[in-house]
Amino acid sequence: MLLSLFLTFFKIGAFTFGGGYAMIPIIQREIVENKKLIKDEEFLDAIALAQASPGPVAVNTSIYVGYRINGFLGAIACTLGTVLPSFITILVVAIYFYRFRSLAVIDKIFAGIRPAIVALILAAVYKMWTKTKRTWAILGASLAAVIAVMFLGISPIWVVTSGAVLSVVYHRFFAAPQKEREH
Q1: Rounded distance, CA 52 to CA 50, Å?
Q2: Which of 75, 80, 94, 170 satisfies CB 3.0 to 4.6 Å to 67 for a cystine?
Q3: Nearest-CA neighbor of 63 among 54, 75, 45, 47?
């Protein structure tokens, strides 16, 4: 199982360009849809936890998934599988890129990669949105979070922390009493 987890995350890490957010739809497809190791709802929880934790979201997600499936050793296997391809790639690029950075073909390669990365991130957002219970309150909170981060320059850490606190307050003091009144 450990080798399987390592190889799965190594494949994800090796064939995903654009960082952690670009890895999310690939992790979801492999872990949730193809291998059915965790359910969609748990994957969304993993993403939320990974986003709220310090460090890259893909690494944090791999730690969560690995730990959930096979404990501490599973977390290690998934983490190594996730980071080794990037480490190897960066090492090779660092060695050779300096020599070839001025070539026009390098600029063209990066010009083609950038839109693909944006598309992968938008696909991840769309998939997560379709799996979320949508209400006007959640839509409003999502838009407020986007505005806070993009236009007001508020750190995502504060946005995620605030979202968690507000959700606890809402469910403790507003949603629970409302359910009691309905019964």
Answers
A1: 5
A2: 75
A3: 75
